[in-house]
Amino acid sequence: MSKNNWVGGLLLLACLGCTSVPDNRWGDATLVARAPQSAPPGLALLDGVPMLSWVGVDARGVHHDARLLGGETVTLPLPPRQPREQQLIAGAGDSTHLFWLDADEAGVTQLFSALLDSELQVERGPTQISNALVLDYALAEDASGGVFVAYSGGQPGEPGMILSGVDTQGRPLPVTDRVGAAELPTFLWVDGDLRLYWVNREIGMIEGGVLQAGQVRNVELLVPTPYLATGDRMIDLHVGAERTHQYLFWNVERASGVFEAWYTFAALSDGTWTSWAQVGSRAGAGSVGQTGYNSGSLQLTPTDAAPLHMVAPLPQQGESLPVLGARGGQLIMMYFQAGEVIGEQTLWGEVVLVAPPLLSSDSARNLFATWSQVSADGSADLYVLSSLSRR
């Protein structure tokens, strides 16, 4: 199937049963760029102002682009080959770390980074972080403005995980730990501890541990991975937490082409995980709760509402856990407490997500979202939306 036919099919599927947005809680989204990438644009906050990055393609070829919201697009002087999977993470002062996957001179996919200043000038980079095939990677900020890095790779059939980092100046740090049979790593700060989660496909389990002095300690088998039939594809693994519970989210594409999102949760006090359920299927009864975020009022989730798909939780612990995803061609934010949905908001309509979105929060508990959605010309529209834009 050609790309245009595939996009057309997605548009038709998504528009079946689509309705207009009943109440756009956050105002208008900003079109960041149009680019042929499925991933949402990278997002970091500089004094509350979003910095955004993506892989652009035009008559000049492929290039790394970035902009501050409200500013002009800057093409970064970072020579690309096959760049993808960009991530931004705030550094020390006004600096920002940019990470991405790209092919090295031998054609092997590696992890690279660069350090940007507040004017989008490259202070250091491109810097190669890895020295073998990288399949997935995860980042977490440290207190000094450096970055904790975990990446999986090596043999595609037997991936392992490597722990490393980048200092405040964007310089790669030595490898501090290696974990066998590990892929899809993801970090989360919980109650002052940096936790690391990953998939062990050899035994069909999700594992987790605490990062201490660069090494993974107290490794535990958490929960079996959800069932995947022949032809099903796991998209990614996400983690989230609020003040009493932690959550695992699993995005999957079934062989039929249907996208689903599943989650499990456990109390932070005992670590007993529930069975997997589709996101949105455990809605609390009664009135909506307080979210703890500056994001507006909530609506009750309808009891007959379809589950969300293509979901991403806020990767920060808070009073509640915001989770962004799609349902019926609309962009929906659900809020979780103690494993249940306490309410939701409809943020945007006529959305066909091509990958899970991205969520972030500033120190004032304002929420920021980016996503990539199918455009009519076969490319993708990259958007950013903030709760600061509420009407």
Task: Give the arrangement of secondary structure elements.
Blueprint lengths: L2 H13 L14 E5 L7 E5 L2 E10 L2 E8 L5 E3 L7 E7 L5 E8 L5 E8 L5 E7 L5 E8 L5 E9 L2 E9 L5 E8 L3 E8 L2 E8 L4 E8 L2 E10 L8 E9 L3 E9 L5 E9 L9 E2 L30 E5 L7 E7 L2 E8 L2 E10 L8 E4 L5 E8 L5 E7 L5
Unreliably modeled segments: 1-22
Strand order of the largest sheet: 1-28-27-26
Strand content: over 45%
Radius of gyration: 20 Å
If helices are DSSP runs of H or I spanning 4 or more residues, what is the number of helices? 1
What is the helix fraction of residues, given as a range?
under 10%
Distance between the termini: 42 Å
Q: Write down the overall mean pLDDT.
A: 91
Biggest beta-sheet profile: 4 strands, antiparallel
SSE run: HEEEEEEEEEEEEEEEEEEEEEEEEEEEE
E-strand count: 28
Class by SSE composition: mainly beta
Shape: globular
Any key phrases for this structure?
3% helix; four-stranded antiparallel sheet; mainly beta; single chain
Description:
This protein has one helix and 28 strands. It has one helix at residues 3-15; strands at residues 30-34, 42-46, 49-58, 61-68, 74-76, 84-90, 96-103, 109-116, 122-128, 134-141, 147-155, 158-166, 172-179, 183-190, 193-200, 205-212, 215-224, 233-241, 245-253, 259-267, 277-278, 309-313, 321-327, 330-337, 340-349, 358-361, 367-374, 380-386. It has 391 residues and is mainly β. The model is unreliable at 1-22 (pLDDT under 50). The radius of gyration is 20 Å and the shape is globular. 44% of the residues are buried. The strands form seven sheets. It has a four-stranded antiparallel β-sheet with strand order 1-28-27-26. The protein has a four-stranded antiparallel β-sheet with strand order 2-3-4-5, with no helix packed on it.
